[in-house]
Each structure stands twice: as structure tokens, then as C-alpha cells.
Design brief:
single chain; alpha/beta; Cytidine Deaminase, domain 2; Dihydrofolate Reductase, subunit A; 2 domains; 8-stranded mixed sheet; 5-stranded mixed sheet; 10 helices; 23% strand; elongated; binds NADP nicotinamide-adenine-dinucleotide phosphate
């Protein structure tokens, strides 16, 4: 009998992960296909999100439910089986206990807390091959991968500014600098992230809801966590605390690292920073901004208007980070520019066009 075709089985596992409905949040999309000793397909499974079975466990369960046996089988999985005890037991152990003889995986686990599954499997006598269609597997979970390798959420800073880089006029008026189409895109951006973060200054000035309200609506269950950061007291009646789902958080800190660690701990992997100059500057000074989505409105507000940032620690030109332009397009009467750090691939659904 011919051995299993790892690439074909991996393509199926990738399709399962891609269709899993998992595309943001704490956990990655993962698919798994089980092949019998003769190389024939015997079962498959995928991860459905935090708190549910991992793909390997789902595939094993479906095989057992159908009366099959995994002993001697090959598991083809898009991500290296995990080695850590989270809400579910380590997949590497589950595969060993099930008697799996061979594991073929795509992407190596970028999460230092969960990595080591391949070594654990090998130590238990399982034949392991990694890196099969690894780039495709990593592309499924770009933001998650980036977040896991950095050990903090990815931060996208959104700006809506005048051509001269101002975000409010001299009298403080800032609604609206950009047009309706750009504002709709901001709602789409919010729908693509796990949390929207602002400072107490913006809260006082605008009392924003921070919810995703894209054209065509957005499921309540997928609203981002709304977060306000700062030491001032936050009124209990503030709009960001209001339904649809009541998921909001106040971070009583001015330390961006601490804020991101707190958000990481509650499963946030992607933060949209929508704030005034003070908080934005703090994140930039700490080098914690990974992407910039800049909407430039065709107006000029002049020197006494509020600048998009204040001091970010750039004393001389060579101190300044040069961002890499990823995309440029017209949005109504405004211009949208997407930037990322040089060398960092743009991620997830923020990658447009
Ligand atoms: N056009 C846009 O894209 C846009 C978006 C958002 C806001 N805005 C405008 O921005 C203006 C508000 O600006 P802002 O600078 O006051 O707002 P902000 O940056 O949102 O909030 C500033 C406040 O955040 C708190 N904070 C938390 N961590 C901080 C840190 N590391 N460094 C400094 N402050 C920290 C401080 O308050 P505590 O004393 O409470 O710690 C600070 O006063 C408003 O006019 C608003 O309309 C424009």
C-alpha cells in the first residue's frame, strides 16, 4: 500500500482550518486529518475557538465516534501539536495515548508556552515531520502568529487627520474630520480586531462607543472588547460600557506594556489603538505600534490645532522610524494609507486589495 500523501492531506487540513470560522481571537485556526496505516483518509477535525477541542482531539473523537481506531494512524495537522496544559490537555499527549504512529505538521508553534510538541512526540517514539506547507499554515493565522512570537497583542494605530497632521481644530472640534466612507472603514477595522483601546482624554472629549458598526451590521458576539486606559476615574455611564454586549474594560495604568500584558492575558491578540496624541505618543515612544492605518482628510487645520502626536522621542531625523507603505487608496474624498514596520507582513483581514 502507498504511504499517505502528506501534501494532499495537509491541503485538506488547511481547508478545514480556513473554513473553521476562527479568524481572530485568542486561539489559531487549526485543521487535522487522520490517515490510516494504508494511507487512506479515516477522520478529520478542526478547532472551533477558545474552550473547545483542539483539532487533533476533534479528529480523534470523530474517529472513535465512528467506531474507528487511531492506533498506527498518521495525524496531519496544520500547526505543531501543543505541549501545554491549557483549557484542554496537551495534544501531543493525546496523540501518543491514541497510538498515533506518525505526525506531519505545517507551522511550528510560535507560542513559547505551547511549543515543544514535536519533541514530546519524538521522545514518545512517534515519527514527526514538520514544515509541510508551513507558509500556507502560518498565513492562516498571521496576526495570532505575530502576537505569539512577540508575546503581546499586535497593535494597529488608526488615525483620522487633516493633511497637516491635525486631529482636532483649535476649539477642540474633531467630529468629523474624515467623511462617511472613511468612518465606515473604521467600523470595519474594529470588527477585525479583538479590542479597541483609547485614553481617558478621548473618553472625556468624545465619549466614544468604540463598537463595530459596519454597514450591514455586525454580530453582537463578535464585538471587540472596548478598553479605556488612564488613571482618571471613568464614569459608569460612559458610552463604551454600554451594550450591545457590555464587554468593556478599564485599565488603570499609563504603562503601555502593562496594558498590553493585561489584554494578552484575556485573549486579545490584536488591538486597534484609537486615541488622542498623548496615548498614541506613549505607544510610539515605547515602540509598541506595529501597523498604522492613516486616513488623511483633504483639509488643513493649522498650527493651533491639535497635532496627531506630541513628543515621540525623535531628536534627529535618523531617530525616526521609516514606516513601510503597504497600501494606498482613495476612500470617498479621503486617502487611506496602511503602513507596517519594515519587514513585518501585514496581517489578517487588515490586508486589503
Ligand atoms: N482623529 C482621530 O483619529 C482621533 C482619535 C481619538 C481621539 N482624537 C482626539 O484626541 C483628543 C484627545 O486627546 P488626548 O491626548 O487627551 O487623548 P488620549 O490620548 O486618548 O488620552 C490621554 C489620556 O490618557 C491617559 N493615559 C494613559 N496612558 C497614558 C500614557 N502612557 N501617556 C499619557 N497619557 C496616558 C492620560 O489620562 P489619565 O490622567 O487618566 O492617566 C491622558 O491624559 C480629542 O480631541 C479627541 O477627539 C482624535
Amino acid at each position: 500500500m502507498p504511504g499517505p500523501d502528506p501534501t494532499l492531506a495537509m491541503r485538506r487540513a488547511l481547508a478545514l482550518a480556513g473554513d473553521s470560522g476562527v479568524w481572530k481571537g485568542a486561539n489559531p485556526a487549526v485543521g487535522c486529518v487522520l490517515l490510516g496505516e494504508d494511507g487512506q483518509f479515516i477522520a478529520e477535525g478542526f478547532h472551533r475557538g477558545p474552550g473547545t477541542a483542539h483539532a487533533e482531539a476533534a479528529a480523534l473523537a470523530s474517529l472513535v465516534a465512528a467506531g474507528g481506531s487511531p492506533a498506527g494512524a498518521t495525524a496531519v495537522v496544520t500547526l505543531e501539536p501543543c505541549a501545554h496544559q491549557g483549557r484542554t490537555p496537551p495534544c501531543a499527549d493525546a496523540l501518543v495515548e491514541a497510538g498515533i504512529a506518525r505526525v506531519i505538521f505545517g507551522q511550528a508553534d510560535p507560542n513559547p508556552a505551547a511549543a515543544g510538541g514535536a519533541d514530546r512526540l519524538r521522545a514518545a517514539g512517534v515519527e514527526v515531520t514538520g514544515g509541510v506547507l508551513a507558509a500556507e499554515a502560518a498565513a492562516l493565522n498571521r496576526v495570532w502568529t505575530e502576537s505569539m512570537s512577540m508575546g503581546r497583542p499586535v497593535v494597529t494605530w488608526k488615525v483620522a487627520a487633516s493633511l497637516d497632521g491635525r486631529i482636532a481644530a483649535a476649539d477642540g472640534s474633531s467630529q468629523w474630520i474624515t467623511g462617511q466612507a472613511a468612518r465606515q472603514q473604521v467600523h470595519e477595522l474594529r470588527s477585525q480586531v479583538d479590542a479597541v483601546l483609547t485614553g481617558t482624554g478621548t473618553l472625556r472629549a468624545d465619549d466614544p462607543q468604540l463598537t463595530a458598526r459596519p454597514a450591514g451590521g455586525w454580530p453582537t458576539t463578535e464585538q471587540p472588547l472596548r478598553v479605556v486606559m488612564g488613571l482618571s476615574e471613568v464614569p459608569s455611564a460612559a458610552a463604551f460600557r454600554a451594550p450591545p454586549d457590555g464587554r468593556s474594560q478599564v485599565l488603570n495604568t499609563r504603562d503601555p506594556d502593562q496594558a498590553l500584558a493585561a489584554l494578552m492575558a484575556v485573549g486579545v491578540r490584536h488591538v486597534l489603538l484609537e486615541c488622542g496624541p498623548r496615548l498614541a505618543s506613549a505607544f510610539l515612544r515605547a515602540d509598541l505600534v506595529d501597523r498604522v492605518v492613516w486616513f488623511a482628510a483633504p483639509i488643513l487645520l493649522g498650527g493651533s490645532a491639535l497635532a496627531v502626536i506630541d513628543d515621540v522621542g525623535v531628536g534627529t531625523l535618523t531617530d525616526a522610524r521609516r514606516w513601510q507603505l503597504r497600501e494606498l487608496r482613495e476612500v470617498g474624498s479621503d486617502v487611506r494609507m496602511d503602513f507596517s514596520r519594515a519587514g513585518v507582513a501585514p496581517g489578517g483581514r487588515l490586508e486589503v486589495g
